[in-house]
Amino acid sequence: MNHLLKKFKDVLDKVHFKKNKRENLHFENGQVTIGKHEYLLCRALVPDIPEMFKLQRLVYPQDNSWDPAVFESELQNRKEKLYLILRHNDQLIAFIGGTFSIIKRDVHITNIVVLPSFQSQGIGSFLLKKLMRYAERLSFKTMSLEVRFNNVRAQKLYSSLGFKNNGLTKNYYHSNHEDAVNMKYIIKKVKRENRKNE
User: Fold this and answer.
1) How far is 100 from 161, CA to CA, in rounded Å?
2) Distance from the Cα of residue 169 to its chain's centroid
């Protein structure tokens, strides 16, 4: 039994060492074109939190699980979390967040929010694809997310990008105890020559 405990401790020590040695997730800010419009895509920083919180409450008024303190905790964990914001004429119009689990090799989408007046313009798809390519470059295997059972529009978007239904979590959302549809995407290796438009 002591031998098994020692092996287990060795595994935990290796995981802990890797986690502490892991570098921050790096993202290079820049201009992007979506449709006919130019946007600034950059990593979210703590000063962006008031705008992110305001946008979150506007798009999901029933969801009170995200407050400024939660956003701050997420943004400060730069080794496992990556939040990208999209600005148009200096206005925050969208953001996406992901948790990169090095043990599961999974990127869990924590948040994707688009200003209503900018929805149905390919922005959500663009942000998801950006994280998909980023995850693939880091050799992650899957992406996962939860979506409200009644949010059929979002489910269709995720399905169109290759996400599959991965079961149901009952009473997932605290605000109204709505069920969540769990969705999963298997990250495929893409050849370099197919990546000209990244």
Assistant:
1) 19
2) 19
Structure tokens at 144: 């996962």
Domain 24-194's class?
alpha beta
Give the pTM: 0.81
Distance between CA atoms of residues 126 and 132, nearest Å: 10
- Residues forming a β-bridge with 43: 84
Q: Let me know: does 68 contact 50? Beta carbons within 8 Å.
A: yes
Name the token pair of 166.
Answer: 């991965």
What backbone torsions phi and psi does residue 47 show, to the nearest 5 degrees?
A: -60, -15
128: left (phi over 0), alpha (psi -120 to 50) or beta: alpha
Token readout for 161 is 């990008």
Burial group, residue 120, by CB count within 10 angstroms (0-12, 13-18, 19+): exposed
Tens digits of residue pLDDT in 139-156? 999 999 998 888 888 999
Q: Are strands 142-148 and 106-114 parallel, antiparallel or unpaired?
A: parallel
R_g of the chain computed on alpha carbons:
18
